Amino acid sequence: MNNKQISNICCIGAGYVGGPTMAMIAQKCPHIKVTVVDLNEQRIADWNDADLDKLPIYEPGLADVVAEARNRNLFFSTEVDQAIADAQMIFISVNTPTKTYGVGKGMAADLKYIELCARQIARVAKDDKIIVEKSTLPVRTAEALSTILNSTGNGVEFDILSSPEFLAEGTAINDLQVPDRVLIGGKDTERGKAAMQALVDVYANWVPLENILTTRVWSSELSKLTANAFLAQRVSSINAISALCEKTGADVDEISRAIGADSRIGSKFLKASVGFGGSCFQKDILNLVYLCQHFNLPEVAAYWEQVIKMNDYQKHRFAKNIIDKLFNTVSGKKIAFLGWAFKKDTNDTRESAAIYVADELLQDRAEIHIYDPKVTKEQIIKDICHCEEERRGNLPESETTKELLKRVTIHSTPYAAMENAHAIAILTEWDEFKTYDWQKVYSEMLKPAFVFDGRNIADKEELTTVGFDVYNIGKGK
Length: 477
Ligand SMILES: NC(=O)C1=CN([C@@H]2O[C@H](COP(=O)(O)OP(=O)(O)OC[C@H]3O[C@@H](n4cnc5c(N)ncnc54)[C@H](O)[C@@H]3O)[C@@H](O)[C@H]2O)C=CC1
Ligand SMILES: O=C(O)[C@H]1O[C@H](OP(=O)(O)OP(=O)(O)OC[C@H]2O[C@@H](n3ccc(=O)[nH]c3=O)[C@H](O)[C@@H]2O)[C@H](O)[C@@H](O)[C@@H]1O
Fold this sequence. Notes:
- By secondary structure, the protein is of the alpha/beta class.
- About 45% of the residues lie in helices and about 15% in strands.
- It is built from 18 helices and 14 strands.
- The chain has helices at about 20-30, 40-50, 60-70, 80-85, 110-125, 140-150, 170-175, 190-205, 215-250, 250-260, 280-295, 300-325, 355-365, 375-395, 400-405, 415-420, 440-445, 460-465; strands spanning about 10, 35, 75, 90, 130-135, 160, 180-185, 210-215, 335-340, 365-370, 410, 425, 450-455, 470.
- Strands 3-2-1-4-5-6 form a six-stranded parallel sheet, sandwiched between helices.
- Helix 17 links the parallel strand 12 (about 425) and strand 13.
- Uridine-5'-diphosphate-glucuronic acid binds near residues 166, 228, 270 and 277.
């Protein structure tokens, strides 16, 4: 079957990766029927909502792509078995979070959702299929998948490919439309090569062939973890330098510009910040560290673990600086948070630095007033509760989560969040934060009025002239 053209694709998992990736394939390949399935009924209902503002993911440009392809050749459904049975190629794009129990707890990737998919495919499939790992997985997962899929004894054969996704949230549509590269890993056998070619042919509908890389499966799987580790390492490296800048009076943005001009270093991903967030950097590095430990490479494991430790330090440093500058206590003080998402142009809050900064300030009994242009109130409450419960799991506290939430207010306008505040903390680099009437904000705040810019986006000179006491990441006073 492998040499025939693919006309029916199924994707299991309608999340941040499955949804946009399949929408792009459907838009670019009108001859292919693409069905995205998920167990989460609400998520599928949201993907099918006539009101495109209700799509479950906020991603610039996504609504237009969905509007063009949906119900033409793009379908969202909870009929998982049917979609599996009909498809020639099945993408697995389910979540692979860090394990929270048992062996590898807090480090290894939890592959239970992947395994469930494999078992379901094995049970349902009546003809040969190509299985594409889209989720980020530890190296050699394809081997485990193959064992499960090929153990039914019913003669159905599966070819397993690894094609990790490199899109970043907030720029997903552009990343999918013009990817730096598409990576496809497969077996070096006739069947393996034919399966890889079938997937190359799908992407070749819009991606130049020279940007479609084919490798062995293990290299493809490990490339994904490596790419995220290198990216996160750059952020931790520049954040480490930001701490030194604050002590010495050097300016981290000037340093980024200076070192980024060296073509061997490159200018991207050198923006010092309150710390990286997002669902993947931490989880993927922990997974890499676990793999290194598993293969008895403790020095390599320790090397990569430091990237996470530096990120934790950066988040803590930011929160501690707020407490220090507010005369060593924020108890009863109103701190306005601008931004809750882990970066701009997304409603995703997973591992957002804002959550950890809020948690530290709440422990010091601050009153937090939060405004984010895209994150819902329910999500913010959920994040705070989850963080609090996780922390209390290790360290019993006298205060209950309910009491703690009394000191959290979520606003639908930025000015209300900042009114009568002692300090403003900028946690996300949303463009609109640069456009506020700072004179008005200042006149409505308590004095001295502090701004802690965790993203270095505010105009420090303007704010200082207005009267604010401004603290940046990586800029000495
Ligand atoms: N979020 C991102 O920007 C990126 C994520 N990745 C990787 O892609 C994978 C998916 O990530 P996200 O899309 O962010 O996760 P997500 O949590 O947004 O979506 C995963 C979806 O899979 C569904 N699911 C889980 N088990 C299922 C099953 N057995 N049958 C049907 N549906 C099932 C869940 O209900 C959920 O809607 C992860 O491995 C992640 O590391 C890779 C690149 C970028
Ligand atoms: O595997 C994944 O999930 C994805 O992880 C990242 O994408 P994402 O987390 O969506 O967003 P990034 O733009 O990488 O930002 C991650 C975090 O680092 C922070 N960051 C990024 C760049 C920078 O210079 N400084 C900085 O603090 C961001 O604010 C954000 O909190 C990678 O960039 C993607 O290639 C990858 O596919």
